[in-house]
Amino acid sequence: MRPNLLIALRFLGARKRAMLMSLTGIVFGVAFFVITQAQTAGFESYFIKTILGVNGMVRIEDRIQSTRTLEAGAGSGFAIAVEGSVKYIPGVQFPNKIVDALKAFPEVTAASPVIRGNATLIANFREYDTKPYGIDLATFVAVSDLETQIIDGSLKTFGENPYGLIVGVRIARRMNLQVGDSVLLDSVGEPQRFRVAALFETGIDQVDRERVYLHLPAIRTLLNKPAGASFIQLNLQDQNAAPAMAARIEQTIAHSTMPWQEREKTWLQVFSVLRISSALTISTIIFISGLGMFNTLVMIVVDKTREIAILRSMGYTREDISRIFMLQGGIVVAVGVVLGCGAAALGTYALSHIPIRIRGIFASDHFVVLWDPWHYVAAAVIATMVVLVASYFPARRAARLEPGSIIRGSSS
Amino acid sequence: MSLLRVENLHRHLGEGDTRVHALRGVSFTIEPGRTYAIAGHSGSGKSTLLYLLGLLDIPDEGRIWVGDRETSRLTDDERTATRNAHMGFVFQFHFLLKEFTALENVMLPMRKLGRLSEDAMRAKAADLLTAVGLADKTRRLGTQLSGGEQQRVAIARALANDPSLILADEPTGNLDHANADRVFALLSDIAHQRGQALLMVSHNPELAARCDQVFRMQDGVILA
């Protein structure tokens, strides 16, 4: 074993209790940091997964029409659109052409036109305001998680019935609906009859209590909307590429195109703030442990002044002395990080098995965690930086000690 | 060639009003295989001189040669390396590292020099402890040894890298008469047998007189 490491290991025992306190602080700091990050990131990623499963990665909505042009010359017929002067015409006028155009983008994995409206659902002598979504089942399951959201009935039954209806679970409970029930939907004063083919649950309260899915031809009749679509829902190969892709698509097809990051900005910011705030709060444990480490090392330097002098007299350089104290910090942080990461893994596992019923922005019956190695790396980096900075100053002080003065001061 | 040569050493200690001219032009030569004592009253500059010779301090004026190497322009690391390879120190308060056994304390300078394998270092340290009469106490921590035993471990440690010069600052000052006599005899015998020079600072005129040469100091100068 290298002499500096050997001496560092033995010196660590000089203040066992204080060192153990610092070590414990680092273990807890690292563990809590990882667990809180796993939990907040877990909820965030689960929210994203849910929201993408409902509303897709990108939505193409209103058509953009330039309202101001500059004519190059009087009567020339050549005009340039003025930036910022645009009008949004609601809906997609030619959805099939847009879907065809999207085939030119290899990053787009699926596109599905959707018609959205308002209708009153009438059943069991009750009425309920809903938002019917007309979908093309074959393409819509490719841009959503509708298949996995079905909790009763089946998509097959829905697909086989042109007047099939998939109802949000909260509507079903409110209206006391079951699969197979017959209901009426009324939008323009001409009620139409549908049969409940399935019930779905997304976990997003607003969706589950107002949305019903029906086939595109059926909604065209219901809303008296023979052409066009309200929006086109897309999925991409890479969800993180959505903003760039949305910008490209918008420029190409002249339709307002919104990525999920922009659409869900509010919730994403809430999660982001929560994650940063918990990281900062938990980091204080590590900072306090660093302060403890600093104090302990300063005390060891004071205790070991004569030992430092004798080491210097027998040939250990200032750098050796500095390394001996930096190594003490390094050993504590290494042990602390390893134990902390182990405790974090156990804690995260235990947390993920705690039963808790969550409904509102997603559906879960237990704590959601995200196993991300970067959480462990971040905790290790923070702990290492804090402890190394805390070790640096005592180490520098130890290295600067003049052996002659110390030994002279110790002699009679 | 002399082992160590000093020429016109001057050293001031303290600051401002408390500044003292501790050494006032000290010159002498140390030859291998001989024992030397620096004797004098407290405050005469003995220890200050010893630390300058051991390259633990820097003179304000004058020069020190270790062998044929003049040391005034050496860097701190070069001075430290010179100490490690050529000098062994024995201090009044032994300064063993209490977390290490006697054997491990003796091995510390060897570990730094890095010339021997772990087994060779261990064997050599055991031989040195046997030479100072501590063969049966190699595994004891410093705190489990008596004052005399600790000083003998410190002597074995000073000899670990076969230094050409052993510098001892009041090595017997903290020991009873019997142990003081034994420690001095040990140092003196080793120096003569191994051809090493021993330079010892001592208050004890009896021990000083048993050295081959005595430098008597007073007010920072060596008396003729």
Order of H and E elements of chain B:
EEEHEEHEHHHEHEHEE
Largest sheet of chain B: 6 strands, mixed
Major beta sheet summary of chain A: 6 strands, mixed, barrel
Helix/strand/pairing category of chain A: alpha+beta
How much of the sequence of chain A is in beta strands?
Answer: 15-25%
Strand proportion of chain B: 25-35%
Strand order of the largest sheet of chain A: 6-7-12-9-11-10
The CATH architecture term of chain B is 3-Layer(aba) Sandwich
The number of strands of chain B is 10
Please characterize this protein's 3D structure.
The complex is a heterodimer of chains A (412) and B (224). By secondary structure, chain A is α+β, with helices and mostly antiparallel strands. Chain A is built from 16 helices and 16 strands. Chain A is 55% helix and 22% strand. The two termini of chain A are 36 Å apart. Chain B is of the alpha/beta class. Chain B is built from seven helices and ten strands. A six-stranded mixed beta sheet of chain B has the order 6-7-8-3-9-10, sandwiched between helices. In chain B, strands 2-1-4-5 form a four-stranded antiparallel beta sheet, with helices on one face. In chain B, helix 3 packs across helix 4 (118-131). The model of chain B has no long low-confidence stretch (mean pLDDT 88). The chains are: A alpha+beta (412), B alpha/beta (224).
